[in-house]
Amino acid sequence: xxxxxxxxxxxxxxxxxxxxxxxxxxxxxxxxxxxxxxxxxxxxxxxxxxxxxxxxxxxxxxxxxxxxxxxxxxxxxxxxxxxxxxxxxxxxxxxxxxxxxxxxxxxxxxxxxxxxxxxxxxxxxxxxxxxxxxxxxxxxxxxxxxxxxxxxxxxxxxxxxxxxxxxxxxxxxxxxxxxxxxxxxxxxxxxxxxxxxxxxxxxxxxxxxxxxxxxxxxxxxxx
Length: 223
Ligand code: ADP
Ligand code: MG
Description:
By secondary structure, this protein is an alpha/beta fold. The chain has one domain: Rossmann fold, CATH 3.40.50. Helices cover 34% and strands 30% of the residues. The chain has helices at residues 45-52, 75-85, 101-112, 117-127, 143-155, 173-188, 200-204, and strands spanning 3-14, 17-29, 34-39, 60-65, 68-69, 86-90, 161-165, 192-196, 208-213, 216-222. Adenosine-5'-diphosphate (ADP) binds next to strand 1, strand 2 and helix 1. Magnesium ion binds at residues 45-46, 165.
């Protein structure tokens, strides 16, 4: 089990009101699984991804990631684990506009002080089929190509888990299919992948699916 979460609760205080974003989530994910998280806007999907990705703590509950209880770790330790184990992909790609594709991809390695950043970034771009676009800036790439760059960036530290929050939300259907195929092949190569999606077709390609409503998991299938 690479992810074991029990009773995750997360509340946001907004002035005098409290929003319950997660209301007791239990979830396990096996190593090598591809999990789809679906649910209406506001159901708590991104909040769950932030906690699973060690960007944030739950207020209560227990989270064991790759055998380590990370529920109570301080920010620095949490960041260390995040940098080592998690790759993130976002709907809006989150690339730096002034850097070319290669520089965007190598950035996490530079932050972490890894050697051979340039060479590894080239390999990651090859993995996503963009070896010939290394010196294009984001504005010189299509949406699908930008998302490929973001995926290459997420792969560069060789994380065990990829977390993708609506990765095809800004792409047309065909491009979204291509991005999904890339995730499927990364998963086939052994990577654990969690995808938040509104799209039924995408969820249907994942062997493990959970649906959220009002901060809870209301249905789960594993096949
Ligand atoms: P989803 O990704 O499914 O759309 P979110 O996890 O983003 O849902 O949000 C769940 C609930 O928590 C929503 O009601 C949202 O408004 C609220 N929420 C999320 N992030 C914050 C925040 N930083 N501050 C206050 N409320 C938040
Ligand atoms: Mg969201």
